[in-house]
Each structure stands twice: as C-alpha cells, then as structure tokens.
Amino acid sequence: MATGTQRRMNPRAKSIAVVSVALVLLARGSAALAAISAQTSNLTNGFGTSASFGLVGNGCISDSGWGGACLDGNALIGTRGVAVSPDGKNIYGASTTSDALTALSRNATTGAVAQLAGTGGCHSLSGHGGTCVTGKALDEANVPVVSADGKHVYATAKLSNSITAFSRDAATGVLTQLAGTNACISLSGTSGQCVVGRAMSGMSSLAISSDGKHVYAAADFSDAIVAFSRDATTGQLTQLSGTAGCISLTGTSATCIVGKAIDGPYGVTVSPDGATVYLSAHHSDAVAVFSRNSTTGALTQLSGTAGCVSETGTSGSCVDGFGLDGPTFLAVSPDNANLYVSAYFSDAVLAFTRNTSTGAVTQLTGTGGCVSEFGTGGACADGVALDGAHNVAVSPDGENLYAASGEGDAVTSFARDATSGRITQLTGRGCISEAGSGGACTDYIELDGVHGLAVSPDNKDVYGGTFWSEGIVFLSRTR
Question: CB–CB of 189/313 below 8 Å?
C-alpha cells in the first residue's frame, strides 16, 4: 500500500492517475456476507449525527472472488468508473485492465448486486475468451455514464482515444453496442470501426446533460473538452461541427476554440439545470467554467477570471484558489447551489458556491469550505483518510458528500449544509478504509485503491470501485 507522498501515478508529469477503480459493489444479503460478517457486525450503529448518513460495508464482487470473501465476477480487473442507472436496477463499470464495460443487476430493496449472466455481463475488447461480447474501441475503458432516460450507456476508453455507445434493455440491463460506425467515435476512426473525431486523445471522463441532448468529454492528452449532440432515439453521438466541437488549450490546429487553464482535463460535470459545464484540469491545477447553449450544445468559457479558478491564479487569468493541486472529479449539488471538487495532490475536498445565473463559482473559505488530509496549512479543516482524494459524489437528497481516496484506500463521509454548502467530515465512523487508517476509520476489505463513486437514485447505497482490489464494493448509507 502506498503511504505518505508516494503516488500510484502514470509516467506523464504531474498526471493523476490512470489508476482506476475496480467497481466495488457490496452485496447486501449475498453469500459473500458470511465470509465478512465479523467485519460488519460492529457497524450497525451508523456514523455521525442523526441527521447525517455515514457508510456501512456489506459485501463485494471481484474478478477473483478474493478466496470466497467476495462474489466472483468477470472482466473487473482495473475497473475505473461506476454508474448507476436512473431506475436503480443496474450498475455499470469500466475496467481499464480488462478493457471492458461490465453490467450488473441491483436489487433496489436490498442493494444486493450480481453480474448479468453469460456474455450479458460484459463487453470487452478481446471478448475475454468468449465470456464477454467482443466490443469495439474499448482499450483501457475508463468511465461510464447512463443517460437520464435510461436508454443508453456511454464510456470513454483512454488508449482507444474513444467514446463507445451502447443501447440498454431497461428490463434486463443488458447492453448492445450500437451497430456499424455508430458504435464509437475515436481520434483515428479505429481502423474504420468508429466515426472519426477531433481532439480526442486520451479520453478521460464524460457527462450527459440532464435534458439528454448533449455529451461532454475530457480529453486528457489533447488538453481539450469535446462536445457532442445525442440522438435520444438511437443513442448516436455526433461531434458538434466546426470549432464548436471542442475547446482546447492550443486550439488544436484551429479545429477547436482556444480555452484557458485546461492543461490535462480530467473530470467533467454538467449542472443539473443544464446551464453550466465544469472541467477539472490536473496539470493546470484548475477548474474551468463554461456556459452551455441548451439548444446547440455549444460551450463558451466564461469571460475574464470567472472562466477558471486555479491554485496560482494562472498569471492573473483565473481566480486565485487554494487546495487545487491536481483536481480530479467534480459534482454539482442537486439544488444547483454548490460545486464540489476532489484534489489528488492536495489530498482535499473543496466546496464552492455557484451563481445560478452565470454559473461562476466562488471558493468557500473558513470553516466548512474544505477538508484535507493535513489541513492545507490551516486553510482547510484537518480531515482523515483523504490521501489522494480522487472522486466526489453528492447524495440525491443533498444531505451528504462522499469522497473516494485512492491512496488512503478509503471512502469518507461528509455532512452538507444545504443553506451554505459547507461540508463537515462525520465524526466517529465517518470513514471506511482498507486497513482502518490507524483506527480513525472502520476497517473493511476490498477498498485498495478506491477511485470511483456513485450514489443510487433512491439514496440508499453508495457504489465505488477499487483498482488494486480488482473488484466492486457496495456501501449502504446509514444514520
């Protein structure tokens, strides 16, 4: 396990990690619980105050089954991202090492999960020896998303430089990759298998607008955010024409609009009201802010310093922020009032207020504005189990924020003040980690290198992913 300042990083300078999350689904009521009942028996009292939800671990699924401690899954090695369908029936994961998109069913009553039977349980680049459907452009599958209508699933693939598109059977959860070149968009066209796109090198993450009309994706190696229209009937994606199809740091040979503070784009999210798109850039140590034309899908970076917040102010072109060393993923609260950001090298979770008219954000200072592993020199509250903070998710009820810590091998719980947007790490059992974090957290298995998070739409459960544990962990919310 990495400790201190050691990072499981890829070779690109100051890059956050190709380190990925193997979906960590803890299956309540499954046979796996028998093997870990001793771990969960002391967790029934919950966490924090009566008004705040902490997490309880209840099970796991992994590629190897972990000697019977977890359910035995398939094509889950290096699962990075995780998404829950809007109807709560399914969970989808993208695994970078298995080059696969996996599909699981979810029992909405118990929270239990199971991988779909046969080849319905996965699509992979190689077909995984006949156990998965052979898919296109899935080399280092990265992050999945499900459309709000539940009809389609999309996933980025970093080494394929692509976005892949699948239709979803709402009754069974089974995915089918779209036919012909509609199956994917990639930088090269992937030998004629995909539509050719622009500024799509090193696709990192993606987000769908709440109206389902558009998809936005972060292209890490192109230093770009890429925009697509979506056909809600067929699921087909089409990159916006001309320079509206991308915003990049250099303009990408005049094929994109020139943007600022977007060196190394990593995470992207669309506000629930559909008005604003936010992008984290881990080389610029910044969050970039774009207004969205809901009709055309085109993005425009806010003018002046409102267009970005960065660790250094980026020579006066951005608002000068703090705790933004290596920002990773972002989440907007359901009430549109706040933006939350995880910062990998700052070991921090940061809170911003959001202007609902313009989309501009203001970093909160003082108590509740941020929580970090060591307090960031007094600028943030001193938290625990936040080493390598990699992901954040806000519960649909808006009461809590959860963070995944890739180096701390932990998921941490925060109460959210709906009025101010400020966050407070829950006390007592406010975190759950692979080794208990020196007694500060509840000790639990299958959390080694947890990086991805998703909260179920019914507010009951949190699903995450662990790259090094090669599996899926499920955590239930409890008062």
Answer: no
Domains of the chain: 76-432 (2.130.10.10)
Q: Which residues contact 328 (CB under 8 A, 6 or more apart)?
A: 16, 266, 267, 280, 282, 341, 342, 343, 344, 389, 390, 391
pLDDT of 429 reads 60
Phi, psi at residue 245, to the nearest 5°? -75, -10
pLDDT at position 105 over 70: yes
> What are the residues facing 391 on neighbouring strands?
404
Enter the pTM of the model. Answer: 0.90
Confidence band (pLDDT; 50, 70, 90) for 446? confident
Name which of 154, 36, 44 is nearest 101 in CA terms: 154
Give the burial class of 150: count Cβ atoms within 10 A of its Cβ; 0-12 exposed, 13-18 middle, 19 or more buried: middle
Q: Is 199 left (phi over 0), alpha (psi -120 to 50) or beta?
A: left
Q: Which helix (H) or strand (E) holds 69?
A: none
Given this model, what pLDDT does residue 469 score? 67
- The model's pLDDT over 305-326, given as tens digits with 9 standing for 90+, comes to 999 999 999 999 999 999 999 9
Secondary structure class of 129 (helix, strand, coil):
helix
Phi-psi sector, 311: left (phi>0), alpha (psi -120 to 50), beta: alpha
